[in-house]
Design goal:
By secondary structure, the chain is mostly helical. It contains 20 helices and no strands. The protein is globular and about 60 Å long. It starts with a helix and ends with a helix.
């Protein structure tokens, strides 16, 4: 008699329950990442309201982005702890906890008193809120990837992970859309007075909806089988560190690639583009939205193609495509290629940014089920804290030395994904 895992291996299409699980998980991921990222869109306003007016603008801004970065540095702690219990007590329980930890702090940001009201307690409370959000986000995305990978048929894994990852990227798009309309509807004075709070309160409402929706999710068949066969471990992270060093290394390097696609290409580059091209802020925001959509679409396309033609072949194509298009984009940007050409190649590079989808695809295959959550979460969050946390400083430094070096950096990450795919091969990723 075939086990549930064997059945999952041979199913060839998504059934109604799979679609429901994928839809609810993806929507929750979108809303939770909106909650986490909306902070960066209102960083200038927060800097002004939560730090002393006498503080030098440079230090005020630095403190605000430092508070934002605290969320990234808290991710490994949250990821490891939540993954530990996810491998021991069930994926769904941690999936629910992660979103609760995100909802409450996001809503609190929207109602926090500012420096004018409570003095230095304001930035301290803001820092605490970001740490809680970082802990939550550390368990959310790894948990979502594991949850989906253990629900859907193996032959549709690339497409399912692509949809989920694309929807998570859509959380950034949702944040940029809300920011865009806030800036259109309200004056700068109104935004500084009260309107900046609305996106955070809205995020809290989004979170409540996500919590409600996730009540209808079921525990994964893979975890139920491990529970029935008594194959769960007391300390999963110990086995990860002892027996999965290659898996940790590969996962960390692919996470590095992912940070290049998200932090450098989508979050940082629009600001550099505006300075170089001297275009309006509205135009840059619109181009950024299109680029975010292109990355999300690239995740879905790359996943769909990998199901049909193999992970190694498609990852290699997307890695090379990302590296080459990044070089062309930066050449056009810094050699006066014209707005149309610059924006076109930015979009092409963003589409090939779908290479980031191979980060979770490789990770859910590399780690065995009883340490999958812990291995994936430990590798991903630690690497994201390092490469993601240092990315702004690195990009600013490279740009100051030679603007093309940022392009070389992204090209390197694309070629790195290509090399990793060839190194692993299809056999190691079955």
């Amino acid at each position: 008699m075939k086990s549930k895992q064997d059945f999952m291996q041979h199913k060839s299409s998504l059934n109604r329950q799979d679609i429901k699980t994928l839809s609810l998980s993806s929507l929750g991921g979108t809303l939770e990442f909106y909650d986490f990222i909306i902070f960066v869109f209102f960083a200038p306003v927060i800097s002004h309201l939560f730090f002393p007016a006498s503080l030098d603008p440079f230090w005020s801004t630095l403190n605000t982005y430092g508070t934002f970065a605290a969320g990234y540095f808290a991710r490994p702690l949250g990821g490891v702890v939540m993954a530990h219990f996810g491998d021991k007590n069930g994926r769904k329980n941690m999936f629910m906890l992660s979103i609760l930890l995100m909802v409450i702090p996001t809503f609190l940001v929207g109602v926090l008193p500012t420096y004018a009201g409570i003095g230095y307690f304001a930035p301290l409370l803001l820092l605490l809120v970001r740490i809680l959000q970082g802990i939550a986000i550390g368990g959310e995305l790894p948990g979502a990837w594991v949850f989906i990978s253990e629900h859907v048929p193996k032959r549709r894994l690339g497409f399912a992970i692509g949809i989920l990852t694309g929807c998570v990227v859509g959380g950034i798009l949702l944040g940029s859309i809300v920011t865009f309309f806030i800036n259109i509807i309200f004056t700068p004075e109104e935004i500084g007075d009260f309107a900046w709070r609305l996106p955070f309160i809205l995020g809290g409402i989004f979170g409540i909806i996500s919590v409600f929706l996730r009540r209808y999710l079921e525990e994964t068949p893979v975890f139920k089988e491990m529970q029935a066969s008594d194959s769960l471990l007391k300390l999963p992270i110990k086995k990860v560190l002892q027996h999965s060093k290659v898996g940790i290394g590969v996962s960390a390097l692919m996470t590095w690639v992912l940070t290049g696609c998200i932090i450098v290409l989508l979050l940082l580059m629009p600001n550099f583009m505006q300075e170089i091209l001297h275009t309006s802020r509205t135009q840059i925001i619109l181009i950024q939205m299109l680029a975010i959509f292109a990355v999300a679409l690239g995740c879905v396309i790359s996943g769909l193609l990998s199901d049909h033609f193999g992970l190694v072949k498609i990852c290699s194509i997307f890695g090379l495509g990302f590296g080459i298009s990044a070089l062309v984009f930066f050449y056009e940007l810094h050699h006066q290629g014209g707005l149309e050409r610059v924006f076109f190649w930015y979009g092409v590079c963003a589409l090939f940014g779908g290479v980031m989808n191979f980060t979770p695809l490789m990770m859910v295959k590399i780690f065995p089920p009883n340490i999958r959550f812990s291995g994936l979460s430990f590798s991903y969050n630690l690497a994201y804290a390092v490469f993601g946390g240092l990315a702004p400083l690195l990009v600013v430094s490279l740009n100051a030395t030679n603007p093309m070096w940022v392009g070389y950096y992204l090209a390197f990450l694309g070629f790195l994904a290509f090399i990793i795919a060839l190194f692993l091969g299809e056999k190691k990723l079955r």
